[in-house]
Amino acid sequence: MNEKRAIFITGAAAGIGRATARHFIRRGWFVGLYDLDTVGLAQLSEELIAVHGAGSVTMGELDVTNPESFQAAVATFLSASGARMDVLFNCAGILKMGHFEEIDLSTHHKIIDINVNGVVNGVDASLDALKTTAKKFKEARIISMASASAVYGMPELAVYSASKHAVRALTEAFSIELEKYGIQVSDVLPSYVDTGMVQNQENKSNSLKQMGIAHSADDIAKLVWRAAHGEELHYFGTKQIGILDKLARIFPGYVRRRIKESSGF
């Protein structure tokens, strides 16, 4: 196995995935860049190789909704990383803002397929490699992108919010199931991040208009780094989100009123 720690990143061509790749490679990690956007991947790979050398990065096309595509990507990653996967970072995701009835059903299904099934497929394809790495190096990790909308269901983000609730539930369940293998599991729950996924929304939600952008992609990359080295289960983007999470369990009626107000309902 390679002595360099290795991270497999889905959705690496842009946004949080891209920022995370830069953050980890600067700290001596081997990074695997995977996405459907091969043009974006090639640009990022070229940038990283120019600074860190070809031995620090690998890339490949990946459709996270396709189990066979994921299995093939993991196989090529392991051949390049020296059979090592210290972190699986499930970053790929999509978002469509708007009232449920104004978004076509196929888009709702696509959100679930990428945001939820993409995580399931990733864990399924990577589990043997994570177990092997954890056995040799005493730990491996799964980190998944959730969202502040996993704290309480958000209007104008209904299906996206539901998908992130699912990611949170998977994180909590996997953290118990996989602990015996030395695999630590966590998720990251930011508010709105300054990425194309948020900025390019055709119909921006009222909560985005009122609350605005809370984080840069680099902010979240740093949070992923913390998750790769920490002991927490959930990594909230701000202290306020963490407080809201606690309140949602103790005073759900209060949180519902707050969300209605911030969403203009």
Protein architecture, described:
- With 265 residues, the chain is α/β, with parallel strands linked by helices.
- The chain has one domain (6-262): Rossmann fold.
- The protein has ten helices and nine strands.
- Helix 1 links the parallel strand 1 (6-10) and strand 2 (30-35).
- Helix 4 (105-137) packs parallel to helix 5 (158-177).
- The protein is globular.
Number of helices: 10
Shape from CA axes?
A: globular
Spatial strand order of the main sheet: 3-2-1-4-5-6-9
**Share of helical residues:** 40-55%
Total beta-strand segments? 9
Q: Could you name the CATH class?
A: Alpha Beta
What sequence of helices (H) and strands (E) makes up the elements? EHEHEHEHEHEEHHEHEHH
The N- and C-terminal alpha carbons lie at a distance of 55 Å
| Backbone structural class | alpha/beta
Provide the low-confidence segments as ranges: none
β-sheet strand percentage: 15-25%
Rg, nearest Å: 18 Å
Tally of distinct domains:
1
* Biggest beta sheet attributes: 7 strands, parallel
CATH superfamily: NAD(P)-binding Rossmann-like Domain
Nearest-integer average pLDDT = 96
